[in-house]
TrEMBL record:
GO terms under cellular component: cytosol
Name under which the protein is recorded: Pantothenate synthetase
Binding positions (ATP): 18-25, 137-140, 166, 174-177
Alphabetical list of Gene3D superfamilies matching this protein: HUPs, Pantoate-beta-alanine ligase, C-terminal domain
């Protein structure tokens, strides 16, 4: 089908997802539709990117509701493979794609093997779907960076587009994992973004004592009821430690509320 579209000169846009779609995903679809004549969405909860003891089993699977939303959004094709289709020889036998260094820090340090799982599945999905372009959310800032690097290093003929994080009215970044939060945690959750906004304001105002700003923010997170995993300011182009003169910085955070791990980021340019 994709081959026939392409032979008619149509551009193929692709949105890879793990399903449980929300308006953040639909914004990716809208962007893909703006850029391409045909849009393919994949839904695959990728076991390779979950570590032992993570939420692979519990990850919300809502295929019927997702299908309905994609139909209404005018998506041309849904690709929802089973693990046997993606990993026919089993996960252990699967050739892997590893993007060194940036995969090992932050979320990669907290979730060893996570970005190998992401890079491997995205590479496979690109080869299966053969899109001209693919759209990802900037909420997963490090993931987007890993994917861009993989595409460049492996000369994959896919344009990668990043789309601004879609937020709830109170600032909480949209995420399928928000559904794990109980009422009390849901009230607390937006404070993550508020604290990041305060850090961004301090940086915009010329504050360059990064270590101090980071540790103040971590204390605020703890006081609000989070268990911070990391809260850092980095160079937005390569995730290196920030230098005073860096023109593009990014605040990256991951924090637990109960058993739910939330991530977010904020660019300061
Ligand atoms: O961001 C996600 O939903 C997943 O990590 C992705 C890119 C679909 C790969 O499984």
């Amino acid at each position: 089908m994709v081959h026939s579209w392409r032979s008619h000169g149509e551009k193929i846009g692709f949105v890879p997802t793990m399903g449980n779609l929300h308006s953040g995903h639909l914004a990716l679809v809208t962007e893909a539709k703006r850029r391409a004549q045909r849009v393919v969405v994949s839904i695959f909860v990728n076991p390779l990117q979950f570590g032992a003891g993570e939420d692979f089993e519990d990850y919300p699977r809502t295929l019927d509701a997702d299908k309905q939303q994609l139909l209404e959004a005018g998506v041309d094709l849904l690709f929802a493979p089973t693990p046997e289709v993606v990993y026919p020889a089993g996960q252990a036998q699967q050739t892997r794609v590893e993007v060194p260094e940036i995969s090992d820090v932050l979320c990669g340090a907290s979730r060893p093997g996570h970005f190998v799982g992401v890079a491997t599945v995205v590479c496979k999905l690109f080869n299966m779907v053969q899109p001209d372009l693919a759209v990802f959310g900037e909420k997963d800032f490090q993931q987007l960076m890993v994917i861009r690097r993989m595409v460049e290093d492996l000369c994959l003929p896919v344009d990668i587009l990043g789309l601004k994080t879609v937020r709830e009215e109170d600032g909480l970044a949209k995420s399928s994992r928000n559904g794990y939060l109980n009422e009390e945690q849901r009230q607390i959750a937006p404070q993550l973004f508020r604290i990041m906004q305060q850090t961004a304001q301090a940086l915009a105002g010329g504050q360059r004592d990064f270590t101090r700003v980071e540790s103040e923010a971590r204390e605020k997170l703890l006081a609000a009821g989070f268990q911070p995993d990391y809260y850092v300011i980095r160079n937005a182009d390569d995730l290196a430690l920030p230098a005073e003169a860096d023109p593009r910085l990014v605040i990256l955070a991951a924090a637990h509320l109960g058993t739910t791990r939330l991530i977010d980021n904020l660019l300061v340019e």
